[in-house]
Amino acid sequence: MAKFIFVTGGVVSSLGKGITASSIGLLLKSRGLHVMHQKFDPYLNVDPGTMNPYQHGEVFVTDDGAETDLDLGHYERFTDINTTRHCNYTAGRIYDSIIRKERRGDFLGGTVQVVPHVTTEICDSIRAAATKEVDVVISEIGGTVGDIESHPFLEALRQFRYQEGRSNVLFIHVTLLPYLGNAGEVKTKPTQHSVGRLREIGIIPDILICRSEKHIDPDVRKKLALFCNVDPEAVIEALDAPHCIYEVPLDFASQELDTVILDSLGLRAGRRNLRPWRDYVDKVINADREVTIGIVGKYSELLDAYKSIHESLNHAGAHHCARIIIKSISSEDIEKKGAEAVLGGLGGILVPGGFGARGVEGKIAAVQYARIKKVPYLGICYGMHMAVIEFARNVLGIKDADTVENNPSSANPVISLMEEQKKVMNLGGTMRLGAYPCSLTKGSLSRKSYGKDQITERHRHRFEFNNEYLSRFEDAGMVISGKSPDGMLVEMVELKDHPWFVASQFHPEFKSRPINPHPLFRDFVGMSLELYGRKKEQQ
Ligand code: GLN
Predict the structure, then answer these.
(1) What is the CA(497)–ligand 1 centre distance, in A?
(2) pTM to 2 decimals?
């Protein structure tokens, strides 16, 4: 029988509920429990796959091909447990399922309502994550308590606790204690109000995680405990982590958060082992070298758009005891100012996944710069398409080479629509998604990085390398370093006569973990450090 933890948020958004839930998962895992994370998003899109990164940030892809919220990336990075399509439900997905059932006639004769039908569907989705081996399901509820959209989810949680029993369900509320400089104190009123909102729904939180700029003194802790009906040791302080997000679980451990959780749920577990995690954080803190890596994309001002890539670079940096200075570069800036002006001084260039024509010529110019100046290059998905187009135009001399994505009538479509995509009409959830195997070419940089012949990596694309051009590329020095096992799809390319130029059709960033950095990021960053690394400047 699994136990259930629900993480809600109050007062303001962006409090770091995802990092909080992930940290709890890590702490419980470090005591030998099997955890599974889950996120509920109250918006009506069925999944975030069709949403703009400005609205939503990165779309995280699971092994089983679900397009999900970026918090699932945190869950996987903290616990190293792969999530599935049962780990992210939006209100849209819940309603979609109910409406399909209604059309099928499952509710024949009945009126379909938010209570009990929507709430029951939500409860069933929570139980779907509690597979046999799972000891604790940790479900995060997106949004802020008090939002109209969150209401059915909170009502479902109340119902869920009623059904599963008090001792099997724990509520954790993440909240903000603002510090008012003129009063010189941390204020608890917004938290009291937000807990009050939860109580109106019938939920009394068991644990409060309080985001704060300042330490919470014992009086404030006592006051919160009394007014919010929690034990003083269940009031946990969450200050901003000074160096990296991976410090958060260590801070929680020092306040015995995991012990409070285990006691409340009546769970027995082993001793906490966070040694490897501490070692990782120590490497981040003690980094003595640094290098600047440029990410050339469409969303330079939007850190969340390439979240997993940022984290993968950080993991790789820590592996080499180095700090990575990430420079977010708008590819349109390159179009305006030229590659040299924008990219000069970088130790590595990364072109991430992307869609559409805006800024494409800037990305192609970035690839050309990396190729000619011998700056380490990592291309991911669209970044591989850009590498192929650049090579076709500037090495093979096919000046009008292009991708069918932006130029459907191109005379030289070196990137073309995948066969299986030609009949696709709907845009949601129809790309080539999830984990696929790939065979690596002996003697290639990629094969050397991974240290094995067969890998599996996660995909999210409609377009692919056009095999009609394959021999011309190979003859001119592009190495096809990874292919689908049937040999039909080009999955990786790299360049000879270059220190490190690798591009993949898949997204390696979804599989990097702090303690186990992804081999491609590790070696990309390794070569950038070797060629352009410098002593770390004091911050
Ligand atoms: N737009 C490209 C495609 O659909 C690349 C997608 C991506 O970078 N994830 O094939």
Answers:
(1) 27
(2) 0.95
